[in-house]
Amino acid sequence: MTVALDPAAQDLLxxxxxxxxxxxxxxxxxxxxxxxxxxxxxxxxxxxQSPLRITLVRSPEARAxxxxxxxxxxxxxxxGAPLTAVLSVDLEFHERLPELLPRAPGLKDTFxxxxxxxxxxxxxxxxxxxxYFILGxxxxxxxAGPMSGFDRDGVDKEFFGDGKQxxxxxxxxxxxxxxxxxxxxxxxxYEDVCTTL
Amino acid sequence: MTVALDPAAQDLLxxxxxxxxxxxxxxxxxxxxxxxxxxxxxxxxxxxQSPLRITLVRSPEARAxxxxxxxxxxxxxxxGAPLTAVLSVDLEFHERLPELLPRAPGLKDTFxxxxxxxxxxxxxxxxxxxxYFILGxxxxxxxAGPMSGFDRDGVDKEFFGDGKQxxxxxxxxxxxxxxxxxxxxxxxxYEDVCTTL
Lengths: 197, 197
Description:
Order of helices and strands of chain A: HHEHHEHHEHEHE
Largest sheet of chain A: 4 strands, antiparallel
CATH superfamily of chain A: NADH Oxidase
Radius of gyration of chain A: 18 Å
Oligomer: homodimer
């Protein structure tokens, strides 16, 4: 094995990590989420555009607002998680580019001036960041339960009424509860995914 | 610090890792890429759809075919990298669902029967996997140089002539060369990215 990452870390992030479907009754603090963010913020986006935004749904009121927009199969686990993150793309991420990309501040008013360009690039890069975030949750010793099954327009109207963000993924976060994991599903063999030219 | 991942691993994946813009003259083997894949394949996708495909561009002939479609600023570093991965979405990922998701093999012919649905879901999930892949490269002790600046249609015609895959991201892979890294650009503060409700 030539991988630099030690085997325990490989297990924590990849090999032994599973999507959790139930959660223990143990809180996840904002401080833990800050530690996750302070790690994953360094992972790359194009032009350092950093378009991901994270809405941490914790209070019973906010949770009720979210759960009604989840698909039926995702409601019990979302209700039962101590914390749920709504990951979204900031469609006006370009406003921060002058500070995020000091070597090319002009991109804000040239390449990223068009809303359509921003939405395409922002969505792609925020989705890369969603991948980093899921692994960051695991790095914190927590289980992640990412879910695509929700009413995107409903969530957007509920939480992003100003139209400046669009939801991408909802992620339950916590310590795994009873019977949290499904059996591991098969993965594709290397030869079917990777081709060398 | 309550993060479970040890500080050296945090540095390797996030804190000390940088996008590389030059590469050392040292090969990256298929065996190394296999080790990366055997780790990152476990990270989650919706319904375990696993739509990411990885084309490893190594030979001088394949490299020349790729470089012509890169934006001008990305050509020298792509030419100079020992290995470059074209990350793409398999638009027919649903064909593998019966083996990937034994608990719901019917999704292939219901939810994922429509090409438009497949492209939207496949692109999103393959992009999550692209995020995992970038961190997997770093986990292997290699530097990644992800690039969005390329002619997507050109790459697709060149490498995916059957129309069954669409390119998402091109990633140079290798040991960093001289002056490989730009100074770290600023990141957004926690308060500007994360909101607790």
